[in-house]
Design brief:
alpha/beta, TIM Barrel, 12 strands, globular
Amino acid sequence: MEYRRIIPCLDVKHGRLVKGVNFVNLKDVGDPAENAAAYSAAGADELVFLDITATVENRKTLLDAVQRTVERTTVPLTVGGGIDSCAAIEELLALGVAKVSINTAAVRQPDLVREAATKFGSDKITIAIDTAKNAKMTSGFEVMIRGGTTGAGIDAVEWAKKVEGLGAGAILPTSMDTDGKQTGYDLAMTRAIADAVKLPVIASGGAGTLEHLYEAIAEGHADAVLVASIAHFGKYSVRQMKEYLAGRGVPVHL
């Protein structure tokens, strides 16, 4: 049976956990390692740690913050932000990170996806796709890079298919239009990508209610849901999320 996963997301800026809306207006919500420990204990299936300003600041992921977080977690941790080489991936995996998430560097040098998948295995490589609505794109969604600050001029669904062909192991599409608003995931975008590839797709950006989690899986065809605001601000516990999904017939690890 394919279990659906609940994955709290730790957006990290300069070593602190933050949360914003539409990728801006960031609020400090604590220490990433402490939050990671709490989510691990609460039953999260996995965690994602994103150093959200690394690319824009032209630097690598802050390894000390990652190290502290890895040490406090008992579930697989995916790390993204500023990863632009196999050497950077190797460094993170050596710290005990389970997977890496690549966004801007994959768009700029697609061969990195193939090289990394070949070297470390597809299961270690997640491709993050930040999307924004754009009517000029065939699917209606454009790939955004550099922390959502720059349009790549690439159709999000076509890009998802391309990275699947290059050997990616999972896709993490985040809607910039719904991020942090708690009004629900962008189901049309999530479904368009999920239906175009055979890879696991992690819905991201906009969860505000338990119903939204169910919709991402039932209507968005997502294999997992990323949660941030509704978890960080104590709206729902991981257990409440899982019990709700189980009650709606979704297979989860309780």
